[in-house]
Design goal:
elongated
Amino acid sequence: MANGSNYDFLKNLKEKLWIFAQPTPYQIFIRILYELYNIFDTSVIRTPDSITNGKFFSLKYQIDAIKLGIDCVNKNSGVIIADVVGLGKSIIALTIANNLDSKKLLLLFHRI
């Protein structure tokens, strides 16, 4: 009897844990659409142009990264910003910090 209750417990546990989930192709498709086309409110963020009095441009790909970064920090207490050299990772990070009114910012650079 004890082995039966262990089996039931493990079966119920596996049904509730995401790691054992097997999403359908439709669920995966919907998730991809959500990730690609999720619309953010553009009126609430400060842009690189606005916080530097025009010294930096507000480029669309950077604004998108700033919005995603703010969302990620709010959900996960942090964000990793990675891209090729010269696309403004430091500007993006500083603008995220400015929008979150944060006085703390950790930047790590690694050169290969």
